[in-house]
Write a structure and sequence with these properties.
The chain has 396 residues and is of the alpha/beta class. Helix content is 29%, strand content 30%. Helix 9 links the parallel strand 14 and strand 15.
Length: 396
Amino acid sequence: MYAPLQLQKNEDRRLRAGHLWVFSNEVDTQRTPLTAFEPGEPVTILGHGGHPLGMGYVNPHSLICARLVSRDADALLDQTLIEKRVAGALALREKLYDSPFYRLFYGESDGLPGLVLDRYGDLVVGQATTAGIQRLAGDVEQAVKSVLSPAAMLWRNDVPVRALEGLEQSTTVAFGEVPETLALQEGGVNFTVSPRTGQKTGWFYDQRASRDRLPVYARGSRVLDLYSFTGAWGLRAARESASEVTCVDASQAALDQLEADAASNGLGERVATRCADAVAALKDLTATEQRFDLVILDPPAFIKRKKDLKAGTAAYRRVNELAMRVVAKDGFLVSCSCSWHLGAGQLADVLRRSAKATGKRLQLLERLGQSPDHPVHPAIPETHYLKGFIARVAGE
């Protein structure tokens, strides 16, 4: 067993219910001072009475000061355990998908809090968002080699959340030669992915299942794709025989890549781009009385912290109202949120209020969520961050 981390009385209930996190105010610091530990150090987590709850790792500098990895208090936090968890995650993805392009490992849901691995064929891109995983980076690399034998692995440790753990941001090659771009196919469309510089690790695998619903709504439609990035939604809509697609994004570099991919897929004549802020573009489209049969609204997270809930909810409300104004009569709206602090019920209420404000009658047809390569841990609601709706926007 590792050095003990003792919890205060009644502070073990969350762990016993299945959660994996320990907050700093739950630790009995008289018995086990947090200052005695190094960031990422393995620990045995004990209930108030001294009964072992399991093994995990600690970070005395973080609000979430410990994370449970195994309920076997005698387990070792080593390469063997990591290999076992990665192999189990791989078995699930190989059951779900025919080709090796997916989120291979999703933190707590796959049994290693703080570790994300995305697979792009022969390249694995990882993110270590906690001190515990950062300390184990070498073991993770060896486990990935043992289980997958990829040609290369890249660490995209350039996410702001690392600051909460006292970690610096960086992008480093673990092993092999990492290409600047690579090819990915989804829904019959060939996309170009930039693993070193693209958002997240280069691709939004979490929305794949939702994009798979496009054939029902895009065929023959005039489509507006807002916050398009490199066109995952828009190009797939074009591939599904949309009559025309307009993609709006604030990044000209992303739109340049979108246009190149549209051309290489023979979709260029039906795809147009517009470099603009989505809100400004919607206001202009409303003023010029433009209407679309399908509007796709997949914005970045407007609510990153709980204290941003009010302002962020207002931002979702504003952009959804504007989007509804450019939906043609009896057209469709795809509205998504990746803000964990905004629940599905709250997003539905945003849509309800937006419809009322615009004089529309709304029908919610489908509820969307993250793809199954982002499995939800039943005891950790934080792992269920992505939600959305497909709605029919009817006039009164």
